[in-house]
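Progress against Task 2.4 (sequence-to-structure conversion) is shown through the following example record, which the project officer requested during the mid-term review.
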Amino acid sequence: MKKKDFKLGVLKQKKTIKQYPKFFISGVFCAVINLSILYTSTELIGIHYILSAIIAAVISSTCNFVFNKTWTFKEDFEDKFFEKYLKFGIVRVVVVSIGLVLLFLLTEYAHIYYIYS
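Structure tokens generated for the chain above:
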């Protein structure tokens, strides 16, 4: 390995390490948004918890995508935004679908409060 390649690798690692706290903070922030929307739309507005979970997932996922794109990874907002959001969205649909099934099963059959499910 050339010395120049090694230095570039080290610089990339340092950049990645600096991104972890921002990634974590944006994830926690968007999780709080998710739970807030879920609770508010179910308890205060009266929407069924499954529909509330879908709404919360869409909003918090979009929040997460935008924060990570612009703040964590410092990408230009317009740089292939829709292409990247579509790819991100496809993965989120799969993950959220699994989560919704678990939410339903745990809430309806295990009788666990939907916020904890």
